[in-house]
Amino acid sequence: MPGTVDLHICFDEQGREIEVLDVTRIATDTYRIEETPIFNPGIALGDIIRVREHQGINYYIETVKKSGLVRHAWLLSKEAAASGEIRSFTKRVEEHEGRWEQIFGGLLVIHLPKHSAVDAEQEMSRIIEHFEG
Prior knowledge:
By secondary structure, the protein is α+β, with helices and mostly antiparallel strands. Helices cover 22% and strands 42% of the residues. The strands form two sheets. Strands 1-2-3-4-5 form a five-stranded mixed β-barrel. The protein is elongated and about 50 Å long. The chain starts with a strand and ends with a helix.
């Protein structure tokens, strides 16, 4: 994504949970998250956060604004994750102004606007049933 940079972000005061995330700088110490953090489920793609920098690490302070996107996530089998059905589904997500990520190969994370015409739960239920059935 153009304009993004990698930022070391720590989500705890002890410095034990540091992630390197793609972000877009909005203002001094304020960034939009461009990928789903693993260590903080309360922060999502598109959220705008404020951080405090100390010795090269940016400590999370607060969420300034939520993205407005609804997050869905599924852990998929290797076959399902690499399938045409998933490629078709993620294409539909993009066509409806959503975004998607595939983390560690099998974790599919979908981000859709609140009033999207895409019923992610229903579509994924159908896809998962196809691979489990």
